[in-house]
Design brief:
Blueprint lengths: L31 H13 L11 E2 L2 E2 L24 E5 L4 E5 L22 H6 L3 H13 L13 H4 L1 H7 L1 H18 L7 H13 L9 H21 L4 H14 L2 H5 L2 H22 L1 H14 L8 H4 L9 H24 L7 H12 L12 H10 L3 H18 L2 H14 L8 H4 L9
Antiparallel strand pairs: 1-2, 3-4
Length: 445
């Protein structure tokens, strides 16, 4: 799989130090054929899962994803920590850091909030953590966090809020390290550690924090942020777990008191904006009724009038130089949502919406070249691709998705491309794509 391009360097003020992106010299990347074969094997051997339709009761979270400590959700068995050590080459500072994975328990974190005080440097905070943890948080900051906001700046809450919390709470630290480890494993080297171990620790931590109604607002926010990061993990590794995670997130939000209780303060604002944003992207993949209900707000009320766009809207007054790109993003999102609504209304018996897709393609071609906002359009590209009816349209959107994957290295995009190519080869079935969405085994954002 492609390594991440280092063309977009995050701008950090008081955040995490840079210097993690250039890891190509240590790359031991598996071939695409091996990756596909491993995925098919793991799907073939996948164990039965428990139902996760009803996960909460009277404010109590039932975090049961049917996991064991040594088996991942797709059935792949990983060797114990004691069998793995690795090194990572940081080419910017010309230093080799050795990581003894067996020596890290994941429990040695900063015990209070002192490192959030401006008088303490971020590097000092990092030095208080285990070496592997320090590396993982840095790697998340530079490869994953940059993809989760409209414009990566000092306001990026995935860096300025989530990572300081990871110093304090193992629950968030394990979720962040899972995202970083899966990304590193797919794009740099499979020899750093076991991504599923971090993931399992995060799930186990959630199981130990089930009495949501009994917690204060801070603890509730920690649980919700951990779930948000786990949702990001499913984007990074292309896992079908996203539905279970999102349903946990939805019900945790309601059990925790919803907007009124959880939407206050800096943490609350971050949580509610990210929750509503992901809810918009996930709706068609959860059910047709949710897709129609949620996307109708964007298709018919304009994006900036929908609460799911609060996070995007917050950047508009700060970056007038990107007004053209932001206006086009609103237009493209509105078109993509309207495309979905119309396809659902017409059903698979109607002909292709060729003119709508052509308009979407033309609008996207007008997007400023080299804009730092282009990564926002992955979801739009996927919608354009599934409704494409000409070879030119199909190739255009597939190529766009490939470029997005070349930039971010997220496995959900490779899964989406595989799905599109398979569906394209099945004559007469492509127009039923809206019926496929609630069962797609990946989350496109």
């Amino acid at each position: 799989m492609a390594t991440r391009s280092s063309g977009r360097t995050p701008k950090v003020k008081g955040g995490y130090p840079t210097g993690v992106t250039n890891a190509r010299n240590d790359a031991l990347t598996a071939t695409e054929s091996n990756h596909n074969r491993d995925r098919q094997k793991s799907q073939h051997n996948s164990p039965a899962r428990n139902s996760h339709e009803s996960l909460f009761s009277q404010g109590t979270i039932a975090f049961d994803l049917g996991l064991t400590n040594d088996i991942d959700i797709d059935g792949t068995i990983y060797v114990p920590h004691s069998q793995a050590t690795s090194s990572y080459v940081n080419t910017q500072v010309s230093v080799i850091c050795m990581f003894d994975v067996d020596s890290q328990t994941g429990d040695d974190y900063v015990s209070d909030w002192e490192w959030l005080d401006p008088k303490h440097s971020p590097m000092a905070a990092l030095q208080s953590l285990p070496l592997t943890t320090t590396f993982m948080l840095q790697y998340f900051s530079e490869t994953v966090a940059v993809e989760l906001v409209t414009i990566d700046d000092e306001r990026n809450g995935w860096r300025s809020i989530v990572l300081p919390l990871a110093h304090k709470y193992d629950l968030i630290a394990n979720s962040v390290q899972a995202a970083a480890a899966f990304h590193f494993s797919d794009n740099v080297s499979r020899h750093l550690g076991h991504p599923r171990d971090f993931y399992n620790r995060a799930i186990d931590g959630l199981r130990q924090n089930q009495e949501l109604s009994a917690y204060d607002a801070r603890k509730k926010h920690v649980i919700l942020i951990s779930l948000l990061v786990l949702l990001v993990v499913t984007m990074v590794n292309g896992s079908s777990d996203f539905r279970s995670i999102f349903r946990l997130l939805e019900t945790a939000w309601e059990a925790g008191g919803g907007d009124e209780e959880l939407g206050q303060g800096e943490l609350g604002l971050f949580v509610i904006r990210q929750y509503l944003k992901f809810r918009g992207y996930a709706a068609p993949a959860l059910s047709r009724s949710q897709g129609v209900e949620v996307l109708s707000h964007t298709a018919f009320k304009r994006p900036l009038d929908s609460r799911g766009w609060d996070d995007f809207r917050s950047y508009i007054p700060l970056y007038p130089e990107h007004h053209e790109a932001m206006s086009l993003i609103c237009d493209l999102m509105e078109q993509a949502c309207a495309l979905y609504i119309e396809r659902v209304a017409l059903g698979c018996g109607a002909g292709p919406l060729t003119e709508r897709v052509e308009r979407l393609k033309t609008t996207m071609e007008a997007f400023p070249t080299g804009s730092p906002l282009e990564h926002v359009l992955v979801w739009v590209c996927f919608f354009g691709a599934v409704e494409s009816s000409t070879e030119g349209q199909h190739e255009y959107f597939i190529q766009k998705l490939m470029l997005h994957h070349q930039r971010n290295g997220f496995a959900n995009i490779t899964n989406a491309i595989e799905y599109l190519q398979q569906r394209r080869s099945k004559e007469g079935t492509l127009l039923a794509w809206h019926e496929d969405f609630p069962t797609l085994p990946f989350f496109v954002v």
